[in-house]
Amino acid sequence: MKYFIIGSMIMLMSITAYAQQSNSSFRVFSKYQNGQVYLKIQPIETQAWYEARQKGYVIERKELNGEEPFQVISSSPLVPYSQERMRQLAQEDPYTGELMTVLYDMEQMENPDEMNFPQLEERANNLTGTIFLHFYLSCMSPTSSEASGLQFTDIEAQANRQYQYRVRIKGEEENSASARVNTFRETSQSLPMVNLRGLDKAVQINWYHKDYREVYIGYRIEKSADRNNWGYLGEAPIIYNKRVSSESEDLEPGYIYEGDSLERNYKPYYYRLTGIDFFGHRMGPGQVFEVRGRDLQAPGQPRQVELAHQDNGSMELSWDYPVNQTPDLAGFFIGRGPEPEGPFKQVNRNMLPPKSRSYQLDQPTEPGITYYVVTALDTAGNYKNSLTVYESVPDNTPPATPDRLTGSIDTSGVVTLTWPRGEENDLMGYRLYRSNQPDHEYVQITHAPLADTILRDTITLRTLTKEVFYKIVAVDNNYNHSPFSAPEKVIRPDVVPPVPPRIRSVSLNNNTVSVKWAASSSRDVEENILLRQDGDEWMQAGTFTDQTSFREPLPADRQQIVYAMVARDKSGLYSDTSDTRSVRSIKFYKLETAAGIEARYNQEEKRVQIKWDGPGGDNIFYIIYRGTPEKGLRMYQTADNGKSSFSDNRLVPGREYQYAIRVKRADGKTSPLSDRVTVQVNNP
Predict the structure, then answer these.
(1) Shortest CA distance to 371 belongs to which of 428, 307, 426, 309?
(2) What are the pLDDT digits (tens) for 186-211?
(3) Which residues fall within 8 angstroms of residue 303, CB to CB, at 6 or more apart?
(4) Which of 544, 562, 645, 665 lies closest to 596 in space, CA to CA?
(5) Local structure of residue 8 (DSSP, 8 states)
(6) How confident is the model at residue 514 (pLDDT cuts 50, 70, 90)?
């Protein structure tokens, strides 16, 4: 058996199938031509394909948007023709013969042991290949398409209708696929545009298949030397190979690429394309395209190129070139350039004749190395360069000092430096240097000469040094350095807030608040700000530069007042808020003060007896204050509720004591302190 595609199974696997609706078992292609609707089934899933071979496909139809249900239009389920009938058709159609072998050879395959997994895997792979061969061969001719059991032709379809077709395996409602077809006009089938590129006795051919993957499964290319006699390229149709296109860097996905050899260059050859659709119908041949091969063979290389100085100050460039090395040699050009790889500027305006083997050159005046090359050119425009030779002129002249170096810095510490490019032809680039002081040593920040005229440098901003300085030098190709440029000063943005002030004390005297503080220690502070808390907000009480104290009256409606401070520097940055300090006043309510205080020392009982007159009452009690002239009064004891006397026996003989009384009510209101009384405790 002869399969012309057996060796291209990968190509079969990459066939891009298209259908208006599909499932995992099979797909349906459709078209309307010659007053008939053609349906083509592409099997996909192995089990469904095997069942369809036994049971066949049922074709149903209904008008789209109509109320009538699907009606079976296939007289019998679609199955492949019998082996005998295929054998008869194969006499005129070889594709049907190959289809017969694919379908009926499988029935004679030996069933493997259910536990022999390698054999089971081999059979599964063979079965998958069989399914693709079944579909592929069914697309190669109208006869094989009809014989395959995969095509149905609806000859009763009427024009100017919209139909929906449903294809299912007999006895399986859910295993189906559908296609919509309108018969208002025949299905359009154009051909791709063919691109040809003539090479040296060869041609490259390609066309874009991706837009036609729903129409054609393959193509044939025809060739002619006179536009009358045509012949196919190759024995088999050309199939799109997705894998080859996607894995090659030189091939663009979606294109089919072919090549052909040509007998002669510059002679016209003609090509045209024919498409093969899924029903075996041929579309074409299409437009005729012309191409010519062209000479791409470069001439021989000029050799033994030498450069010699003449007495008159000029130079002679000479080379060797065998007479018969390039029969179609057109002549020579001389090139001059700054690098061995070029670019080279043409020296001689007119091409030197093929017999030339030397050329007079002017001595180069520019310092540095100048390279020369001899180029051989043939009549087809192909060329070949010789190896280069060079002439060196010492260069000890440095470039000019760069000027107009400018710098700017952003808030993240990125410095942008720019400068104009010098006019020297041999200028290699620039080196940049940095220092924190204008008279300190500058450190290089470029590792190699910089060809650009802009540089971004990153510096730290959290430093007490507010300025940074840059210089630049120019470097030529011989590493001659220019003098330093003038320094460029860049001022760092201030991102370090000042140190906060420190409140030393807050005191209250005669309803006047006195605040003292230590100013911020930061050098760039412009003002110290005193803040006063007012409810949930902080209000500014005052701003100060050299002053370190502040006084203000205590508001009549305030019993407590809280202060804090911040500092602001020249950049407008504020410090953290200092620790808070507060002062509280004691408010006395106008309760009646205790009066008539008497204090007597009882020598016998060794105690002081104190009596007073007060408002009295169940919610009134008295606080006794005791002290000495040296230490002052302090709260000492509390008299029981309702009493207006107190006895003190915790005494030191020979000491003088002072007493006073404060009236206090149960709700917390107090009176002013009473007048003091003094009593002397006698010695025994």
Answers:
(1) 307
(2) 888 899 999 999 999 999 999 999 99
(3) 319, 320, 321, 386, 387
(4) 645
(5) G
(6) very high
Residue 148 C-alpha from the chain's centroid:
52
**Nearest Cα residue to 236 out of 218, 252, 248:** 218
Burial class of residue 59 (count of CB atoms within 10 Å of its CB; 0-12, 13-18, 19+): buried
> Mean per-residue pLDDT for 439-467?
90
Tokens 């496909």: give the residue: 57
pTM: 0.53
Q: How far apart are the first and last CA of the chain?
A: 148
DSSP string over 317-345:
EEEE--TTS-TTEEEEEEEEESSTT---E
In contact, 75 and 170? CB cutoff 8 Å: no
Q: Which residue bears the tokens 């405790």?
A: 681
For residue 459, pLDDT beyond 50: yes
For each of the domains in the chain, give its residue range(s) and CATH number, in order of start. Answer: 6-182 (2.60.40.10), 194-292 (2.60.40.10), 303-393 (2.60.40.10), 406-491 (2.60.40.10), 502-584 (2.60.40.10), 595-680 (2.60.40.10)
Q: For the chain, what is the radius of gyration of the CA atoms?
A: 54
Distance from C-alpha of 163 to C-alpha of 65, rounded to nearest angstrom: 9
303 Cα distance to chain centroid: 52
Angle between the 117-138 and 46-55 helix axes, to the nearest 10 degrees? Answer: 60
What is the three-state SS of 133-154? HHHHHHCCCHHHHHHCCCEEEE
The residues near 671 (Cβ < 8 Å, ≥ 6 apart) are 588, 589, 590, 591, 592, 593, 594, 662, 663, 664
Cβ-Cβ contacts under 8 Å for 676 (sequence gap 6 or more): 633, 658, 659, 660
489/486 Cα distance (integer angstroms): 10
pLDDT, residue 18, reads 38
Asked if 559 and 585 touch (Cβ cutoff 8 Å), the reply is: yes
Contact 98, 139 (CB under 8 A): no
What's the gap between Cα 137 and its chain centre?
Answer: 48
Strand 151-154 and strand 36-43: the pairing is antiparallel
What pLDDT, on a 0 to 100 scale, did the predictor assign at position 4? 39
Torsion-angle region of 273 (φ positive above 0: left; ψ -120 to 50: alpha; else: beta):
beta
In terms of Cα–Cα distance, which of 49, 101, 114, 100 is closest to 78?
49
Residue type for 615, please? P
Mean per-residue pLDDT, 93-104: 92
∠ CA 265-270-274, nearest 5°, is 145
Note whether 50 and 168 are within 8 A (CB). no
Cα torsion through 543, 549, 553, 557, rounded to 10: 70
Backbone phi, then psi, for 147, in 5-degree steps?
-75, -15
CB 633 within 8 A of CB 641: no
